[in-house]
Amino acid sequence: MLTMAKKKESGSADDDAKPISYRPSADVGAAMRKYRDQFKAKPTKSAVIERALREFFRAEGIDIELEDPESD
After folding, report:
1. Which of these, 66, 72, 71, 37, lies nearest to 49 by C-alpha position?
2. Distance between CA 6 and CA 65 in Å, rounded?
3. Is position 17 within any domain?
4. What is the residue-averaged pLDDT of the chain?
5. Residue 19 domain-assigned?
6. By the 8 A CB rule, do 30 and 36 touch?
7. Does residue 11 surpass a pLDDT of 60?
8. In this structure, are residues 66 and 50 in contact, taking their beta carbons and an 8 Å threshold?
9. 41 lies in some domain
C-alpha cells in the first residue's frame, strides 16, 4: 500500500534568505579591488615555463641561460 511522504519540518526559508539588496557580484568586485595588486602580479605563462625549465635543468645539474625574446 502506498503512503504519502511526510513533509519535513524545517525552519522557514526566509531564515537564510539574503536581503533584496544583496548582490554577490558586488562582493566579488570588492574582493578583486581589495587584492588588485595580487591579481596584477600574476606571472605570465612564459615566466612560468621559464621557471619550470630552470628548475628542471638545475635538478639535472645543467646550467642554462635563457634568452629574452623581447631583447631582439
Report:
1. 66
2. 72
3. no
4. 68
5. no
6. no
7. no
8. yes
9. yes
61, pLDDT greater than 70: yes
**Spatial distance between the Cα atoms of 64 and 57, rounded to a whole number of angstroms:** 7
Q: Is residue 3 part of a domain?
A: no
As a three-state string, the secondary structure of the chain is CCCCCCCCCCCCHHHCCCCCCCCHHHHHHHHHHHCHHHHHCCCCHHHHHHHHHHHHHHHHCCCCCCCCHHHC
Range of 55's domain? 28-64
| Domains of the chain: total | 1
User: Which residue in the block uniquely carries the three cell numbers 600574476?
Assistant: 42
- The separation between CA 8 and the C-alpha centre of its own chain, rounded to angstroms, equals 37
Name the pTM for this structure: 0.36
For residues 8 and 11, give the distance between their C-alpha atoms in angstroms, rounded to a whole number: 10
